[in-house]
Amino acid sequence: EVQLVESGGGLVQPGSPxxxxxxxxxxxxxxxxxxxxxxxxxxxxEWVASINPDGSSTYYPDTVKGRFVVSKDNxxxxxxxxxxxxxxxxxxxYYCARGHHFDYWGQGVMVTVxx
Amino acid sequence: DIxxxxxxxxxxASVGDRVTLNCKASQNINKYLNWYQQKLGEAPxxxxxxTNNLQTGIPSRFSGSGSGxxxxxxISSLQPEDFATYFCFQHNSWPDTFxxxxxxxxx
Lengths: 115, 107
Fold this sequence. Notes:
Number of helices of chain A: 0
Number of strands of chain B: 11
Radius of gyration of chain B: 13 Å
Structural class of chain B: mainly beta
Order of helices and strands of chain A: EEEEEEEEEE
Shape of chain A: globular
Helix content of chain B: under 10%
Oligomer: heterodimer
Radius of gyration of chain A: 13 Å
């Protein structure tokens, strides 16, 4: 059974860093893209980051480029989202999702940026 | 960036109805359009990928069509479990972008 489990969320102050993890199981992690998508409370979905199967290429929208870094450790079947210089507008539920089509999603982890 | 516009933002319908949800891209995205369903408090679920490909396990009452800039998701006969929010998503070019969603509610 394919599973993705996010962790690492919480309440942080503006300007702080935070690192999210996405533990994968039930499929060949090293053969799949890994993506992060977020959803602010009561709002729509926003794509945040993608990384290709071997981790050699990463992609971001301008809203997080230069602040967020996506990575994956294929030996540990785990993906990461390092978030730096967090802003109040980064407050959201963060999901990791598999593959080009986001065919499996984790349950999400909440990140709240507030003083 | 490619803007995705969904209409209507809210759709009221009854069980058994046939409904069509629309998604318009601000430029040509070829066939690279996906549809997701999200229920309250849950993660989104992939329904359709690349315009008209039904994801494994999704009921055949869901179908997608379109090309270029105009796309539709059709539910042929609404079931109680289909009342949810639906998002379209383009992955033709970076940055990938979602539509704002259509909330399908019970009339």
